[in-house]
Amino acid sequence: MIHASIVTIGDEILIGQVLDTNSQQLARALEETGVHVVRMVSIGDDGEEIAQTLLQELQRSQLVFCTGGLGPTKDDITKAVLARISGSKGYKKHEGQMEKVIEILHGRGLDVLPCNENQAMVPEKADVIVNQLGTAPIMVFRNMPGTLYSLPGVPHEAVGAIPAILDDVKAHQPLSQILHRNIMVYGLAESALSEKLAPWEDHLPADMHLAYLPNPLTGIRLRLSCYGTASGDEVQRMEAELSRLKALLGPLMYADEDSDLETALGRIARENGLTLSCAESCTGGMIAHMITSVPGSSGYFLGSVTSYAIAVKEKVLGVPGEVIEKNGVVSSEVAAAMAEGVRRLTGSDYAVSTTGLAGPSGDEFNPVGTVWIGVAGPRGSKTVKYVYKNDRKRNIERFAASALNFLRLFILEDLNR
Amino acid sequence: MIHASIVTIGDEILIGQVLDTNSQQLARALEETGVHVVRMVSIGDDGEEIAQTLLQELQRSQLVFCTGGLGPTKDDITKAVLARISGSKGYKKHEGQMEKVIEILHGRGLDVLPCNENQAMVPEKADVIVNQLGTAPIMVFRNMPGTLYSLPGVPHEAVGAIPAILDDVKAHQPLSQILHRNIMVYGLAESALSEKLAPWEDHLPADMHLAYLPNPLTGIRLRLSCYGTASGDEVQRMEAELSRLKALLGPLMYADEDSDLETALGRIARENGLTLSCAESCTGGMIAHMITSVPGSSGYFLGSVTSYAIAVKEKVLGVPGEVIEKNGVVSSEVAAAMAEGVRRLTGSDYAVSTTGLAGPSGDEFNPVGTVWIGVAGPRGSKTVKYVYKNDRKRNIERFAASALNFLRLFILEDLNR
Fold first, then answer.
1. Do B251 and B271 lie in a common domain?
2. Count of domains in chain A?
3. Residues of A in contact with B61 (CB under 8 A)
4. pLDDT digit string, tens, across residues A240-277
5. Which one of A21, B61, B360, B413 is separated from A297 by 20 to 30 angstroms, measured CA to CA?
């Protein structure tokens, strides 16, 4: 197994100003490629410390990835350290990166300054992978005890460079091929799901493994991996196991690739020519925000009403005052009336609604964390109640994700009739 | 200066499943206490690796904080390692933590199992800080080359333990007292702000320092720190500098403590008895989501309409069809009509609106990243246009934050008349 270390350079991480998301993204990609990350280290912008840490990690791991410390300003001393520890005698200009530097600066209406030209200079012993998204090149040093990759620190540049880096790793390392397939599941806790899948999981071939990767907003990502590549029939055997898994999951599965609920719901709407809307109380706009975070959502999402005030529920959504008075605001009846109301108002095919108590305080009838979710469509409406036990922020997230999933199931029921 | 290392234990971080937010929170708190974090390390659940890493960091730094590896399951071997490297002969039961274990499990309707009882057992040489939020105690080992703190890995428990840990650090370390004050600013880029403040900043007393801490959703946090404590008049001298800073900033400042735009806007609304609403197109619900993320927002936020479809803009918000036709959907006129429309619909004192193109594609009239923001109030309406150059997700965030700030300034103008 190939081992890797990730080294992050930058004072801004050590003082807690910036969260290190690069290491997570890189670690996840490496792990799925069959490279085992054994250590992550964050250090400051100190030349001696950078040199010592990189050399130490090159003793520990065959692959070392360092991110950060490559900007055009004087704080960034990483490149000089890389030249020194790689035994480079001098620098060379990389024409491909220089073209990119010019293209990017001109695109921003800026002149090319000497400090920008320096960015296309790399230590003599470096191979270069052109950074398509920024001015600092990605450098590879193969003449070390292991191989050292240097990435820019800007998150979208670092993450954007991952595919090219993985290609380089695969081309140079004796990696055993690993197959991965993802299945997205929503609606069961990890423990309940694992109990449900145990009989199947226990009979998985010895070269296959199932991982549970939970996330509050997207549910559980199930990742089936196949580590055996000798027989040549791995793809077929994976497909056979995936079919069994999908049959066991039924509608709990919302995507058979890495995805999220809003994308899955959007696909159902788009593929079936359906329009959506929502009426939110306790989720306060988060459902609409999630739905519209998907590019192209303007093709099927008509709009939403956040009715925080009771008067808005009555006047805009047309929820009858006596329904609120009789059942309380947090009730099945109000959830149903809100969904029906916004469906009528926007003319959408389907609608979803929420009314509940995200916190910090409950009311005389319901504890904090209670939510009623309503859905409405051409065949009528339906509601469900959940009680979560989290803080306000997390409750809002759980309410919104549950609402998207409830709407998804409601539409699928109609489509499968 | 006291140096610290933070060591995170857990395979879930190394495979990229979980983002390490604990280290950031802890680093920020330590830095503001005057402890300098020199290294963060993440390692797996391997006993030998844990022991070696902790001993190495104890050579490097006077304070070492390790998080994770303390759950009730067998994966968690950290406590045995801590016993070994601290030279503990055995374990002792901590009654205070045991009471907390019983209280927490009973609160969840669970019985106390032997593995839970074990959680209140600590190595003989450990001092204990009771974990008020979970079953695993916080342990302090003072008999090492430096001092080793062991925290649980569950984020809300780790973050919840920070104040008690800082108290312990302050009680045992010769820290020079540092004073910090935060000022929140929105509406200027870091470079422009730094130019504006340069004349004042250049004349700061030698023992004071200003840090710029930018964040896309909250703007720039300015942190003024005073490191001198000899003269005894630091608080007054800080106040004098803060007054000068505030005068320079004017309405660019939205809070004189660590805060965010939605909280600042909420405070203005609450203190002046004003109600708010919003009409969102390109922000798709995010403004409402931000406003309602503040506890107590139901006291001043009436509701919102997300009008993704033109028909919803016309029918629900009452934007005249000819205004859209004449000016285009992304226009000053439509932004104003949307804000006025939702203000009329909800009966709120003030309203804010957005119409723009978050991406991925622009239209024939406007590039991606264009937004018109409208505000409406008792004295009429006003609009502003911004063009940002980010991806869809980031554009939506910038649009929403800018809209909250524009509404804040609009209300302040009226209040200051």
1. no
2. 3
3. none
4. 999 999 999 999 999 999 999 999 999 999 999 999 99
5. A21
Residues of chain B found within 8 Å of residue A21, distances taken between Cβ atoms: 19
- Asked whether the beta carbons of residue B308 and residue A301 sit closer than 8 angstroms, the reply is yes
The CATH code of the domain that includes B301 is 3.90.950.20
| Per-residue pLDDT reduced to its tens digit, B50-104 | 999 999 999 999 999 999 887 666 556 889 999 999 999 999 999 999 999 898 8
Q: Quick one: A376 and A278 in the same domain? A: yes
> Could you tell me if A268 and A234 lie in one domain?
no
Kindly determine whether residue A25 and residue B31, on different chains, have CB atoms separated by under 8 Å. Answer: no
Same domain flag for B215 and B266: no
Residue A8's pLDDT band (boundaries 50, 70, 90)? Answer: very high
Determine whether the interchain pair A303/B293 forms a contact, defined as Cβ–Cβ distance below 8 Å.
no
Smallest CA–CA distance, residue B93 to chain A, in Å, is: 30
Q: Which domain holds residue A30?
A: 2-172
B301: closest CA of chain A, how far (Å): 7
Distance from the Cα of B67 to chain A's closest Cα (Å) equals: 14
Residues A49 and A141 in one domain: yes
Looking at the fold, whether B69 and B148 belong to one and the same domain comes out as yes
Q: What is the 3-state secondary structure (H, E, C) of chain B?
A: CEEEEEEEECHHHHCCCCCCCHHHHHHHHHHHHCEEEEEEEEECCCHHHHHHHHHHHHHHCCEEEEECCCCCCCCCCHHHHHHHHCCCCCEEECHHHHHHHHHHHHHCCCCCCHHHHHHCEEECCCEEECCCCCCCCEEEECCCCCEEEEECCCHHHHHHHHHHHHHHHHHHCCCCCCEEEEEEECCCCHHHHHHHHHHHHHCCCCCEEEEEEEECCCEEEEEEEECCCCCCCHHHHHHHHHHHHHHHHHHHEEECCCCCHHHHHHHHHHHCCCCEEEEECCCCCHHHHHHHCCCCHHHCEEEEEEECCHHHHHHCCCCCHHHHHHHCCCCHHHHHHHHHHHHHHHCCCEEEEEEECCCCCCCCCCCCCEEEEEEEECCEEEEEEEECCCCHHHHHHHHHHHHHHHHHHHHHHHHCC
What's this model's pTM, rounded to 2 decimal places? 0.88
In this predicted model, what pLDDT tens digit does every residue of B172-211 receive, in sequence order? Answer: 998 887 888 999 999 988 888 999 999 999 999 999 999 8
- Closest CB from B14, B26, B285 relative to A286: B285
